[in-house]
Amino acid sequence: MYLPENLLGGVKVPFRTExxxxxxxxxxxxxxxxxxIKVMGGRPHVFPRGGQVLTxxxxxxxxxxxxxxxxxxxMMLRLI
Length: 80
Fold this sequence. Notes:
Strand content: over 45%
Largest sheet: 6 strands, antiparallel
Helix content: under 10%
Number of strands: 8
Structural class: mainly beta
């Protein structure tokens, strides 16, 4: 599925390596996972989520709303 580059605005950041994830601790992010994209009427509708990154563990981020977000689940991530 094609998603435009500027879909979320903000600054696009890498999130694939452990160093990338460590750099995100303490920042506010806006992210999209597969379950945040719904196809309605033949067109994709994106429902991004956001929050502050509290900590990381191996390949996952802990968001301030209590969600552990696996790096492999993230389709798009931006700083806000």
